[in-house]
Amino acid sequence: MNLAVYFERHLETVVSRVSKRKPVIVLTGARQVGKSTMLKTSLKGVNYVALDRPPIRESALNEPSLFFERYSPPVIVDEIQKAAGLFEYVKDYADTERKKGQFYLTGSQSLTLLKNISESLAGRAGVIKMLGLSMRELDGITYREPFSPSLKAFTEMSKSACAFSYETVVNRIHKGFFPELYETKSDLHDWSDFYDSYLQTYIEKDIRDVLQIQDESAFLRFVRMTAALTGQMLNISAIADSCGKDINTAKRWLSVMESSGLIYLLKPYYNNLNKRLIKTPKLYFLDTGLACWLLGWNTPQQLTSGAMWGHIFESFVVTEILKSYYNDGIVEAPLYYYRDKDKNEVDIIIQSGNTLHPVEIKTTGDPQKSMISSFTQLETLPGITRGCGAVICMAREVLPMTKTDSVIPVSYI
Fold it and tell me: What's the CATH number for 11-130?
């Protein structure tokens, strides 16, 4: 019998920190990324109630005034958006009792959840975003600072970074980063079964009510099309055409996918003083395993030999960098990409004040200086300092590339 393994989540520290300042902690993230498991594991002795259970949800909807008498604070309320009437009672309790760390609210549909937070709990709630397991969490790395292509960061990471393993990286990218896939030993049949069930649950519990979908097959085509465009500039017209829907419907569906934690839109860096910069965001699927399953890459070998390997790898790196910010409690990561009308492009820009740090992402283990030629474009932007940069790739060790730029193995993210 295999016992489930729990990986310590870096967000545990953030939850503890925010609960000392706010009466309400709101944890958002895609279904099954480990929100309730982390809270139940780290908050010993705190009541727990899940509103996706019909009898409990009916109680919350029909008798909201009695709900918190039965489930008294401090309490974890899972899928709180399913009973919006509870928000007013949370507000009243927080204002009356004035105690910190009383309500831990989770939701997998942040569009609905955050709307209620802004209307009822403004100033009372601390919002935290959660993604799937990070490489740092899987490897037991304790370093928790957001990723930065700086010598100081590389030095700190080198103290705990695991030895590079190409096979491990590829297998994880293909498997994806939902905790359930790592809790016990699993094979490719378990992988396929998990994502098949995941997609159906996502549509039935997170999407159907919000979007009132009549044509489920069109929505499935829409989801697959977004997966096919991961790592590329958003083309909403192409996505709409692929599922036979109009632009407005496609935009609404995309917004819900974004708010439910399946995709991330990386904004372009834009400076009003430079009119030659592109304004279209890039689309990233936030779990590479789900993207692989949707696209039919059924083994790691099919993935690395397929036409989309570069885009999937880029999606993985962008998501890992995003996790490093979310896991430090930063819900608006200072991440952008650069592209101008001459097609000069930098995969990621990390902004720190007026300094921009360029990052290029490559599947190679032996990057060339020509790959960072676009970094110099940042030096032409008015009022901007070009900081140190990096090429994140399949190299085995940190190496200098220029005086300011380095080759960084993915294990150092």
Answer: 3.40.50.300
